[in-house]
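Input.
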Amino acid sequence: MGQTSIIYLRDNIFDVIKLDGSLVNGLFTHANTTDIIASIVQLSKSLNLIVLAEFVNTEEKREKLHEIGCDYYQGYLLSPAVFLEEEDKSDTQQ
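Output.
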């Protein structure tokens, strides 16, 4: 058996917990997803960690996550995927 996620939290140093997109996508389709995300957010805040939700592609999802206490987002609502080459070009044009 490998390490559980909780042991991983205890034994490693990092600043951000990322909510997997499959969990975030279930926000309105699985009854207990809101409670699971709220628990992760509460635990993360007590450990002074940032919670970043991926696959945030609608304002409705962003608002629900904000209500739960998650205020960092990644997804098409904010920006479509950008290829590294495009990002490099925009950096040199500034």
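The chain has a mean pLDDT of 85.
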